[in-house]
Write a structure and sequence with these properties.
Length: 247
């Protein structure tokens, strides 16, 4: 299969988009690491689902903001599967409010998870990605990083930040035949979107040319392609998967 013998770590894959990605990678033969912070039951459900389809997966708890926990996750992954080929930095949060009312704690919290977590995981798995056969770094950004969004100054800043990081690491990893790319989803039906009021959701939907919100599977297929050898000549790119709301 497309991802046979490839070890793929997906941060924040107990739910939502991460879950869709983990299951898709498992379906195509990868050894999948289902990382979670607190949703243990859901993470084990994902592992069970992957195994029920003939795949291989383990669940590993680690808060991506905690460097020690990320190191421990790396050790578990290495002991179980050896070198990691693919890191998908997917874990992310929102803490929304207009900028005028945003406290420094609300700003810091989102930076800490959405950028600090990416730093911790990328830093810890960096030597694996360099050594791996067709190493892949895949960062999950957002259309909000491209367009900005009312009430999401902290979140939009982190998601734009991933563009600069991805392009820089694409340069620094190129000589190791390892690529770094960004996926920028539009609005996806997960718990994160549920936090938005029905009125705002309807306004957003009316702006989407394909006239629907994405399902996690719409994002997962693109990540599966990036994780595979087929994407070998693509690096430093931002792939918009957004129903046509941005290009
Ligand atoms: N939904 C959208 O419309 C949308 C659009 C564009 C981009 N995105 C991006 O896609 C990614 C996933 O979003 P989603 O909608 O699937 O979110 P979600 O349904 O809220 O799920 C978030 C996942 O991240 C994990 N997580 C959160 N904080 C963590 C931490 N500190 N350490 C480890 N794991 C952590 C959660 O694990 P626990 O349950 O264990 O806490 C959960 O598995 C995010 O980066 C988000 O910015 C989402």
């Amino acid at each position: 299969m497309m991802l046979d013998n490839r070890t793929c770590v997906v941060t924040g894959s107990s739910r939502g988009i991460g879950r869709g990605i983990a299951e898709e990678l498992g379906r195509h033969g990868a050894n999948v690491v289902v990382n979670y912070r607190s949703s243990e039951g859901e993470a084990y459900d994902v592992v069970e689902q992957i195994e029920s389809e003939g795949g291989t997966a383990i669940a590993v708890q680690a808060d991506v903001t905690d460097g020690v926990e990320v190191e421990a996750m790396h050790e578990t992954v290495t002991n179980t599967f050896g070198t990691t080929n693919v890191l998908v930095n997917n874990a992310g949060i929102t803490v929304d409010t207009i900028f005028e009312k945003m406290t420094r704690d609300e700003w810091n919290h989102v930076m800490d998870v959405n950028l600090g977590g990416v730093y911790n995981c990328t830093n810890t798995f960096f030597s694996d990605l360099k050594q791996a056969d067709h190493g892949r770094l895949i960062n999950i950004s957002s259309v909000v990083g491209q367009q900005g969004n009312y009430g999401q100054a902290n979140y939009a800043t982190t998601k734009s930040g991933l563009f600069g990081l991805t392009r820089t690491l694409a340069l620094e990893l190129a000589s190791f035949n390892t690529t770094a790319n960004c996926v920028a989803p539009g609005f996806v039906k997960t718990a994160m979107l549920e936090e938005v009021s029905d009125e705002v959701k309807e306004k957003i939907r009316q702006r989407i040319p394909l006239d629907r919100f994405a399902d996690p599977d719409d994002i997962a297929g693109i990540v599966r392609f990036l994780a595979s050898r087929d994407s070998a000549y693509m690096t430093g790119q931002i792939l918009g998967v957004n129903g046509g709301i941005e290009w």
